[in-house]
Amino acid sequence: MAQIDAFFKLMNDEGASDLHMVAGQQPVLRIRGDMERVKFKILENEDLKKMLYEICPEDKIKAFEESGDVDFGYEIPGLARYRCNFFQQKHGIGAVFREIPSDIMSCEQLGLPKVVSRLAHLPKGLVLVTGPTGSGKSTTLAAIVDEVNKTRKDHVLTIEDPIEFVHQSQKCIINHREVGQHTKSFTAALRGALREDPDIIMVGEMRDLETISLAMEAAMTGHLVFGTLHTLNAMKTVDRIIEIFPANQQGQVRSTLSDALKAVVSQTLFKRTDIKGRCAALEILIATPAVRNLIREGKTYQIASVMQTGKKYGMQTLDDAIMLFLDKKMISPDAAYSNCIDKAKFVKYLLNPPSDFTEV
To answer: Three-class SS of residue 186?
Structure first.
């Protein structure tokens, strides 16, 4: 048993999502969004480095010492998996660990709208799950893949850095590939994927032009592709994909994306006020003919109004999802106001509204 495993057990017992261990400070847990210090001595650089290196593969240690940061996965059987990041900082070494539960929650258990689980039954196309770091994208994506695994007879290929949720093959065959360990890069894995007879490809993170381009190509050639992006809402997701390409290619990219895209699920995580826990407010864009035309014509600024009128297709705006939580008293008015798009709609719920409600 590694020395650091005791902290992982504490993390699990306290229901923390993240563990921060930084030289020169006490360990810190993120519990329901808040940072809570652990009653432990201040971590000395050499002691912390020894503790961290105990669980880090040799090749990752070498990469860390060369570059100053590294990602990898670590698992404690029977407890959980952890996404690990080591980095160098002013006072020495630092590390952040994200807990990935062993049990994968279903869409129903997560309380996701029914339209999200229906995305698992699409024959082909591109489905994007987006949101800021720590908003639960991986958990939502894992629930969708779990639905695929339980209901379809297909080959599912996941490409991640590092592997997070591990799916046991049920009706599907599922192969997990980790960037750096099983393949050189997302791009190399996507190129190889097209020769590996997949029906469904899950790309852990669409970071660059080449990865996005290959993901769209796979979606256009009859595969169902799931991916994540660090964008705040559906409209910005579409803009981000188009803007990553050179200006002289953007017209063609709009056309390709309008054909490939099936849905965007963009989420923001909130601390609940009624019970212990957190909830995700989802903005859902379904690529109807009207949405495809807006993308093709470069009128993405009109997407929000289409989502307002497309509720019968399962679409909803982030503000509508936040308002639903607020009406049910699941979240605080301050949190709703901080994360909403239309501030004027939520300012009336604040006890002490700011003097200028257009300022966040």
So the answer is: helix
